[in-house]
């Protein structure tokens, strides 16, 4: 079997564009991959336009290890966000091809299931006015939808420090959410790399009474010593990793023991096999894996296959129950969350198929999403 063509499709939404990749073979089997490139879709498409003819066409999609090795090595460039995302989209599509050819779900090809359902948490649900009353009502809707865990960034457009009034507002928001969902629902606190260590530590201590399951990216990702400083002075587990794009760059994080949970993004880390290797390495440090997932249905399906076969998996992020309906419709087949868990995905392959008519009806949008803008949480990006 050989790869004979690669096609790209971009689906537009209110605040993000989702890039789907179809890998076609000479035996008529087609695999689908995906990468969500916030504000960098042109860069991804440009990379694929050059990488596909030089690295992908003519290769055997079953030889994934060899394909990814050459895509990373032969460009003679330091792998970055764009390169690793392009590799991931192709790599995921190759797993889909292999699963379809063999009649097996992808997780069976990666070692087989170690659980019969996959714990989920909701994100993207708090697109409301930033008041305790509105956040509480939105949180209740999340629980009514079947989730038993949810994540929020209550910090507005904060950066480095917060004034006293804003600190009180943050506490009021989290308190309202906790009261709304009760003590049995997990709350995860997203910090989006906003703070200096002193502020991150202070806010973590103020939020401790509401029993968050983690604080995520409390400081910017560039200085792991600063992250270690936070981790050593808070009692809430620390999660990070969505902006680390190769497994090599996780080395210092593990050696410093600066986080309790890592959050690699499969679609930015080179794909399923690279993330599986990283998870095994994390396990040597007793670190859990909770993959970052802001993707549409194809990326979500890939995440579920990884979760199914990874022993130190913790919980799976999911946005698409709180996005426009056409996001899920673009590639149906992802199972729904029931009582806080995804069922195992059904194969063969990833278990999803791209619906070209839906993608055609919702073309790419020229949007720019800024997490440090006022009202960013409404997820209505600025138009270029």
Automatic annotation (TrEMBL):
Superkingdom of origin: Bacteria
One Pfam family linked to the record: MR_MLE_N
Enzyme class: lyase
Cited InterPro entries: DgoD-like, Enolase-like_C_sf, Enolase-like_N, Enolase_C-like, Mandelate_racemase_C, Mandelate_racemase_N_dom
Record-linked CDD domains: MR_like
GO molecular function, one term: galactonate dehydratase activity
Ranges for domain Mandelate racemase/muconate lactonizing enzyme C-terminal: 132-237
Annotated EC: 4.2.1.6
Coiled coil (UniProt feature): none
Keywords associated with the record: Lyase, Plasmid
PANTHER family the record matches: D-GALACTONATE DEHYDRATASE (PTHR48080:SF2), D-GALACTONATE DEHYDRATASE-RELATED (PTHR48080)
This protein's name: Galactonate dehydratase
Species per Swiss-Prot/TrEMBL record: Thermomicrobium roseum (strain ATCC 27502 / DSM 5159 / P-2)
Origin organism lineage: Bacteria, Pseudomonadati, Thermomicrobiota, Thermomicrobia, Thermomicrobiales
């Amino acid at each position: 079997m050989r790869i004979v063509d690669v096609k790209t499709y971009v689906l537009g939404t209110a605040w993000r564009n989702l890039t789907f990749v179809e890998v076609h073979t000479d035996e008529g089997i087609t695999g689908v991959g995906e990468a969500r490139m916030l504000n960098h879709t042109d860069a991804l498409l440009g990379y694929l336009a050059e990488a596909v003819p030089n690295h992908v066409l003519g290769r055997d999609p079953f030889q994934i290890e060899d394909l990814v090795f050459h895509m990373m090595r032969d460009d003679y460039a330091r792998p970055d966000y764009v390169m690793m995302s392009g590799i991931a989209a192709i790599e995921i599509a190759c797993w889909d091809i292999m699963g379809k050819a063999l009649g097996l779900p992808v997780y069976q090809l990666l070692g087989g299931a170690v659980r019969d359902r996959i714990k989920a948490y909701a994100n993207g649900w708090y697109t409301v006015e930033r008041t305790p009353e509105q956040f509480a009502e939105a949180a209740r809707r999340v629980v009514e939808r079947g989730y038993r865990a949810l994540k929020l960034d209550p910090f507005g457009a904060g950066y480095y420090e917060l004034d006293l009034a804003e600190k009180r507002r943050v506490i009021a928001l989290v308190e309202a959410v906790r009261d709304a969902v009760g003590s049995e629902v997990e709350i995860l606190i997203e910090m989006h790399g906003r703070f200096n260590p002193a502020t991150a530590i202070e806010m973590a201590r103020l939020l401790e009474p509401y029993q968050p399951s983690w604080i995520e990216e409390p400081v910017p990702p560039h200085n792991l010593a600063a992250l270690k400083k936070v981790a050593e002075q808070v009692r809430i587990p620390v999660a990070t990793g969505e902006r680390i794009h190769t497994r090599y760059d996780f080395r210092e994080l593990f050696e410093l023991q600066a986080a309790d949970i890592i959050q690699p993004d499969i679609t930015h880390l080179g794909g399923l096999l690279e993330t599986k290797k990283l998870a095994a390495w994390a396990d040597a440090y007793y670190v859990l894996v909770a993959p970052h997932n802001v993707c549409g249905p194809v990326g979500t399906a890939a995440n579920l296959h990884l979760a199914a076969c990874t022993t130190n998996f913790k919980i799976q992020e999911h946005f698409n129950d709180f996005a426009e309906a056409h996001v899920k419709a673009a590639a149906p087949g992802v199972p729904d969350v029931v009582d806080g868990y995804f069922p195992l995905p059904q194969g063969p392959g990833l278990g999803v198929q791209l619906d070209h008519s839906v993608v055609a009806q919702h073309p790419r949008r020229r949007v720019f999403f800024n997490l440090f803008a006022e009202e960013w949480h409404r997820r209505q990006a600025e138009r270029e």
